[in-house]
């Protein structure tokens, strides 16, 4: 059996080497020629899996170690009778921790803000759910918007109310357009001139979902007018990022919000399990024993009288040690050349990214 895999997948050899030859390739450049003698294709979001890619190929399984599926032409896969799987929720905890880290980096005083700080969560799927739980643990007021979900843990409001009331908004929706099945609630340019104008002028905006959910032109105008603090991990014209946009952002990172070691390993394990089910193999491997625990910087003692207060103190003391988001921002800005960040520099940052660890590795079992 031959398996073609994105070179940025974690633990590919550990999970798949027993099944045959693995060819690791740059995900963005995987072509139809690479699949001529391929039995299974393992990808991430940068590989556009469409009819042209799989045409006349012997591929019998496609696994994407990602939450989203907008890079998969599911109709083409089904028309060619190719089983496929994604890894919904694999890096949800990492993204939730990224958002909280960004907020506490920009405004450290939020650690003690309690209910006076309102976080609006757009999209209440796997990531949104984790973020709601984390924010509520920190005692923030959380409101959420999702027309497709009834969420037991979140105070759900309509979109306009969320825009009007939130002190920070974090986006966690898939990318859908007017031609998609969910056209009534399409998310392409969900944040545009009209919706941005309905936000509080000092509200923070964070997008770690899909770049085109936020209209870049409207965002630049909004930042120029309101001096809004904006954090982007994804970009409308990714992988190219203009100097104009980069210079306007408060924090910018190269699509790595979900790049924890646990998240990437979990994603590979999830498509490994689907692969085994498809090919009738035994799925008996787990990534957890492979991971070392870190120094217990977040030793949450739930029985202690002031356990939460102690946790908050530990978190703020060790925030940049656990994840230095400013380092990622600086690394991206250092790639600026001739007025833009180009594809190769962007992809190299992601390929060589030193995977961070989730809070649980430091002792905090919050999920």
By helix and strand content, what is the structural category? alpha/beta
Radius of gyration: 21 Å
The assembly state of the depicted protein chains is: single chain
Query: Overall mean pLDDT score?
Result: 94
How does the overall form come out from the CA principal axes? globular
Report the sheet with the most strands, covering strand number, pairing sense and barrel closure.
7 strands, parallel
Q: Given the structure, what is the number of helices?
A: 13
Following the backbone from N to C, one meets helices and strands in this order, namely EHEEHEHEHEHEEHEHEHEEHEHHHEH
- Euclidean distance between termini CA atoms: 38 Å
Roughly what percent helix? 25-40%
Instruction: Tally the beta strands.
Output: 14
Largest sheet strand order: 8-7-6-9-10-11-13
Low-confidence stretches: none
The portion of residues forming beta strands comes to 5-15%
Any overview of this molecule?
There is one protein chain. This protein has 13 helices and 14 strands. It is 34% helix and 14% strand. The radius of gyration is 21 Å and the shape is globular. Helix 4 (92-106) crosses helix 5. It is of the alpha/beta class. The strands form 3 sheets. The chain has a 7-stranded parallel β-sheet with strand order 8-7-6-9-10-11-13, with helices on both faces. The chain has a 5-stranded parallel β-sheet with strand order 2-1-3-4-5.
Topology record:
Blueprint: E1 2-6, H1 12-16, E2 21-25, E3 40-43, H2 51-54, E4 61-64, H3 74-79, E5 84-86, H4 92-106, E6 118-122, H5 126-137, E7 141-145, E8 155-156, H6 159-165, E9 168-171, H7 193-197, E10 204-207, H8 216-226, E11 230-232, E12 241-242, H9 243-248, E13 251-252, H10 261-279, H11 307-322, H12 325-333, E14 340-341, H13 343-351
Parallel strand pairs: 1-2, 1-3, 3-4, 4-5, 6-7, 6-9, 7-8, 9-10, 10-11, 11-13
Antiparallel strand pairs: 12-14
């Amino acid at each position: 059996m031959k398996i073609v895999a994105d070179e940025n997948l974690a633990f590919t050899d550990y999970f798949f080497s027993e099944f045959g030859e693995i060819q690791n390739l740059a995900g963005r450049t995987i072509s139809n020629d690479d699949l001529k003698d391929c039995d299974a294709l393992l990808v991430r979001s940068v590989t556009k899996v469409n009819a042209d890619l799989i045409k006349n190929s012997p591929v019998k399984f496609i696994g994407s170690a990602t939450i989203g599926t907008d890079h998969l032409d599911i109709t083409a896969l089904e028309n060619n009778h190719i089983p496929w799987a994604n890894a919904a929720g694999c890096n949800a905890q990492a993204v939730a921790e990224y958002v909280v880290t960004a907020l506490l980096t920009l405004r450290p005083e939020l650690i003690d803000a309690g209910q006076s700080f309102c976080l609006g969560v757009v999209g209440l799927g796997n990531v949104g759910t984790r973020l709601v739980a984390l924010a509520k643990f920190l005692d923030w007021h959380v409101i959420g918007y999702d027309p497709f979900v009834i969420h037991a843990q979140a105070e759900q409001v309509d979109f306009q109310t969320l825009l009007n009331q939130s002190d920070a908004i974090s986006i966690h929706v898939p990318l859908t357009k007017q031609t998609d099945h969910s056209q009534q609630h399409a998310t392409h340019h969900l944040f545009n001139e009209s919706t941005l104008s309905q936000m509080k002028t000092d509200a923070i905006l964070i997008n770690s979902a899909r770049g085109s959910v936020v209209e870049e032109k409207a965002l630049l105008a909004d930042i120029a007018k309101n001096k809004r603090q904006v954090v982007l991990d994804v970009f409308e014209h990714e992988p190219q990022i203009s100097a104009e946009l980069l210079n306007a952002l408060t924090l910018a990172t190269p699509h790595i919000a979900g790049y924890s070691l646990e998240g990437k390993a979990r994603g590979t394990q999830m498509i490994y399990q689907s692969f085994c089910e498809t090919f009738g193999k035994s799925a008996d491997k787990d990534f957890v024993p492979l991971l070392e625990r870190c120094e217990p910087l977040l030793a949450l003692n739930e029985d202690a009288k002031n356990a939460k207060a102690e946790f908050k103190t530990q978190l703020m003391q060790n925030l940049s040690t656990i994840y230095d988001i400013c380092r990622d921002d600086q690394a991206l800005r250092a790639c600026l050349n001739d007025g833009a960040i180009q594809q190769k520099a962007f992809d190299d940052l992601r390929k060589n990214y030193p995977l961070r660890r989730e809070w649980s590795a430091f002792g905090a079992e919050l999920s």
